[in-house]
Specification:
The structure is a single chain. With about 120 residues, the protein is mainly alpha-helical. The chain has one domain. It is about 80% helix and about 0% strand. It is globular, with a radius of gyration of 15 Å. The protein starts with a helix and ends with a helix.
Amino acid sequence: MKLNTLFTINAIVALLFGLGFVLMPDQVLDLYDVTLDDAGTYVANIFGAALLGFATMTWLARNSSASEARNGLMWGLFIEHTVGFVFSLMAQTNEIMNAMGWSIVAIYGLLALGYAYFLFMAPSD
């Protein structure tokens, strides 16, 4: 896989979930058997806004050449996805979400692995 493919996948996933959390967080989280009160809806909206920012950054960076800025973006996304993986795995193993929650664990895990590959294993361009 190429880095621009990973950035594109990240952008699409972040856009879809970001729009969902901004526009209809209750319906999105209902898929995972998670209910929200007013404070939870606010947090979901803010999370959606952050995801839309990630979508924009990864989409615009997908064709960028090697630079400190691109490397910084990869580090930030690696950390975000790794921490997201840990917390979503904890939530899933504590049965906070239904079986659909495993999809969130997989998304975070695969994206974290993708960024780990480009940060630690792939030849630099």
